[in-house]
Design a protein that fits this description.
7 strands, 4 helices, 4-stranded mixed beta sheet
Length: 158
């Protein structure tokens, strides 16, 4: 199998099993957009550590989906670990493919008192308006997802 030879599905899977072809699956991310009654979105300021991706940037809460974990279970686990909250009653917003991952984004309408949240990752939490988000570069390409979120406005339909 050299020189760009065309192979069928069966040969392809057999080559993978034999270790002749390696297939790198994109990692999965799971995030949640919390929106309050003022139509603001909750973001967190990432830690300012040079060894992490996107240090000191605003981000949507979430994390990496572990092996054998579904994205909905991941976001429940991540919110428990990072914000100490029991998450339920959320809805799927989008599944977006990026160069480095597939991002599963959920959303929930909830007025969270950020002064009562004890977070274990990041520097701070803040509610952002749509205009503030447009003027802030977010980690992991979330500007596009939030632009779509405000354009579709699922929070106005509930």
């Amino acid at each position: 199998m050299t020189g760009g030879a065309v192979i069928g599905h069966i040969e392809f899977y057999e080559a993978i099993k034999a270790g002749k072809i390696s297939v790198r699956m994109k990692r999965k991310g799971s995030s949640i957009i919390f929106v309050n009654d003022k139509k603001q979105v909750l973001l967190f300021l990432r830690d300012d550590k040079p060894d992490i991706p996107f240090p000191n940037m605003w981000d949507v809460p979430g994390g990496h989906v572990e092996d054998n974990e579904i994205p909905a279970k991941c976001i429940v686990r991540e919110m428990k670990e990072e914000l100490g909250m029991e998450l339920n009653g959320f809805q799927t917003f989008s599944v977006e493919e990026f160069d480095d991952r597939v991002e599963y984004t959920f959303w929930k309408k909830e007025d969270i008192d950020i002064n009562k949240i004890t977070f274990t990752e990041g520097q701070s939490l803040k509610w952002f308006s749509e205009d503030e988000i447009k003027n802030t570069e977010l980690a992991y390409g979330f500007n596009k997802i939030l632009e779509d979120f405000f354009a579709q406005a699922p929070f106005s339909k509930n």
